[in-house]
Amino acid sequence: MSRAVDEAEHSLELHLPYIHRLLQLQHPDKPASQYPPLVPIMVGSTSASTERAFGSLLAPYLEDPTNAFIISSDFCHWGLRFQYTYYVPQAPTPGPTLPLSYDSLPQPSASLESVDETIESVSAGHSLRHRDRIGRNEPAIHESISAFDMATMAAIATGKTDKFLDTIYRTGNTVCGRHPIGVIMAALEEVTAKSEEGTKGKFHFVRYERSSDVISVSDSSVSYVSAFAVL
Questions:
Q1: pLDDT tens track for 83-103
Q2: Overall pTM > 0.90
Q3: For the chain, which residues score pLDDT lower than 50?
Q4: Considering only CA atoms, which of 164, 155, 167, 194 is closest in space to residue 52?
Q5: What domains can be seen in the chain, in order of their start residue?
Q6: Which strands make up the sheet holding 77-78, listed edge to edge?
Q7: Which of 185, 161, 179 is nearest to 58 (CA)?
Q8: Which helix H or strand E contains 81, and what residues bound it?
Q9: 3-state SS assignment for residue 91
Q10: DSSP assignment, residue 118?
């Protein structure tokens, strides 16, 4: 890794203060030197086969109940400055009012058929250009973003890595941590391959938020999602 790449990378730096505070609360009588060890893993722009390979390597550690994995990712980065202006004319309107919490978010209990329908409904979008304007009777841009973010979450909640990757391919959703998400999903799939529990090892979504509600092509926003999975 070059120095420039290292200086630009910030996922670990953003997590560390929160991890440290959580460990303080869990171990109030211990000095920081006695906290459980942290093992940082940086995942670059990898292929699906590489993600499956690393998922297989990490699966035994994931299966160990003394370990916990924290995956860093924002969700959609939308706007001309991110070179991503995907728009879904068929998006539901009015869209949801954010933030959204557990009961309003995709969960593992959804059927594969309904997930496929959700993904299909956001797969016929197109990129907006700077001069494009959204009509009064069309979904607002932020409603479109909500629609394909929800579809991406629904794909993750199935626990099927290929479903998640296919959704990213169809929409181009700029989930910045899509590669570490792919790795951990591959690991979870390997660990739960023989499990009969339907939601074991699948992600449950807790909260969805965005930095702003985009109305114009000149606007931009970043989406944020939190989720957990338990084996």
A1: 999 999 999 999 999 999 999
A2: yes
A3: none
A4: 164
A5: 1-40 (no CATH), 48-228 (3.40.830.10)
A6: 77-78, 221-228, 204-210, 100-101
A7: 185
A8: none
A9: coil
A10: H
